[in-house]
Amino acid sequence: MNFDGLERFVNGRIEDFKKLLETSTYGEIKTLNEDSVDIYLPQRDITLPDVPVFTLQGSGEYLQFPLKVGEEVLIVFAKDSALDWLSGNEITSEINFGLENAFALVGLDTLANPLKLTQVTTLNVTKMKIQNSTAELITTLSNLLAQLIETTAQLQLLKVTTIAIGQPTTVPTNASNFGIIQTELETLKSEIDSFKA
Questions:
Q1: Which are the contacts of 21, defined by CB distance < 8 A and separation ≥ 6?
Q2: How far apart are CA 148 and CA 42, in angstroms?
Q3: Which residues touch 106 (CB under 8 Å, ≥6 apart)?
Q4: Cα–Cα distances in Å, from 64 out to 14, 17, 72, 192?
Q5: Of 13, 19, 38, which is closest to residue 27 (Cα–Cα)?
């Protein structure tokens, strides 16, 4: 018995199914929203609205980088309802890999603009914010330098009076300013210490 026709039929249906099934594809950011992005898929000439963006995070800590229109992304399609999962609802088990179940992975290393892979961790940013629940590191360091600059200025204004030769001098005339600086430096040290493990 010849099953060639049946085999061609089954293989044809499998190929048709594979054409409808999408687990991932490529796109670019078209619009930046408050907490999502709109992704343009050039190969389909369609735009996916409100796509969640993957952010490296865990236990309330995260690394967040600025995005811009035109950046290339890898779109991954979940098997089940992404909206249900993101909303905390019961997840439907329908197998669809639909366009509405998209997630955006940003930061792909392209051949046109590759990053060299080295053993050195490099953080190359225009602006950076490192913060905990009480302080922001760069601001604290900037304030620390400001106080050190003020200390130098006060040292240049330092004046003491001598009652007589061989007798102790009086306290500096700007001693109260040094007291204020000391308090500020102690506060800044506490903020920097709050970043310690």
A1: 97
A2: 55
A3: 29, 53, 54, 65, 67, 71, 73
A4: 41, 37, 17, 22
A5: 38
For the CA atoms of the chain, what is the radius of gyration?
A: 31
Domain ranges in the chain? 17-106, 137-193
Closest C-alpha among 93, 54, 100 to residue 77? 100
Question: Which amino acid is present at 108?
Answer: L
Structure tokens at 25: 């594809």
Residues 6+ away with beta carbon under 8 Å from 125: 65
Please give the model's pTM, rounded to 2 decimal places: 0.60
The structure tokens listed for 78 are: 């979940």
CATH topology of domain 17-106: OB fold (Dihydrolipoamide Acetyltransferase, E2P) (2.40.50)
Helix spans in 98-174 (H): 137-156
Query: Strands 72-77 and 61-63: what pairing?
Result: unpaired
pLDDT digit string (tens) for the chain, length 197 residues: 556 766 676 666 666 555 555 688 889 999 999 989 999 998 889 899 999 999 888 888 888 888 999 999 999 888 777 777 777 777 666 666 777 888 899 987 777 777 777 767 777 778 778 888 889 999 999 999 999 999 999 999 988 888 788 788 888 889 999 999 999 999 999 999 988 87
Total H helices, total E strands in the chain: 4, 7
Determine the longest span between alpha carbons in the chain, in angstroms. 125
